[in-house]
Prior knowledge:
Strand order of the largest sheet: 4-1-5
Strand content: 25-35%
CATH class: Alpha Beta
Helix content: 25-40%
Number of domains: 1
Structural class: alpha+beta
Number of strands: 5
Order of helices and strands: HEEEEHHHEH
Amino acid sequence: IRGAVERVSGGDPIGTAAGTLDRALAGDPSRVKVVVGPTGRALYFSRAPIPFDRDGSGGVAYHQHVGVYAYTRDALERWVRLPPVPEETWERLEQLRPLAHGIPIGVALFDRPAAPGVDTAEDLKTVAALLARQLREVSP
């Protein structure tokens, strides 16, 4: 959250965050990927593995979007008035709307995997098991 806020404090109208993503997990559509440009702003978000490693070099770094945002008041007011764009509908990713309409989204990158999201029943089972395991480790 702090990184998203720092992006907005630094001048981006919208801020978000992303962690590293193992190449083996990049094909999972429940893990939203983001490509970040040299200025630290999002170029695109997708459920597909982006950027695509056409030559199979293995040198591609994947970033998993963390679904947390910080906004300026103006950016949020603009976002909610914007019409949906086809990409948002196809991908089912709301952040594509402001991006397609030219509102920059700054991305705070961190060098560890993102915490698991809880978007499906299977995700809930995974996180519940993780929490139960952590509780057993700290409780005698």
